[in-house]
Amino acid sequence: LQANVNRLKLYKSKLLIFPKKSGKKGVKKGDTPKSELQNVAQNTLKEIIPVERPQLRIKARAITSEEKESSAYKKMKKARTDKKYEGAKKKKADEGKKDS
Prior knowledge:
By secondary structure, this protein is mostly helical. It contains five helices and no strands. The radius of gyration is 29 Å and the shape is elongated.
């Protein structure tokens, strides 16, 4: 998220806003002054500010005994089940507290 904020700040710093109309009435607050607009080159690149991509490739390594013993499928299944019945468990616990 911070990377996007930095990209936007960099974009805004490079942005030059041309006035819509010529003359003094056409210039609005936030427009770039005429002195800076004299020799401006148009950007023809596909990307204005490229997005820095993190390195996705992870080097191969040996599987540890801990990883062999645990099952990712069972963990995901347990998490899905817990999420599904979370409300019912909470309701049952609240009723148990009220009865006590």
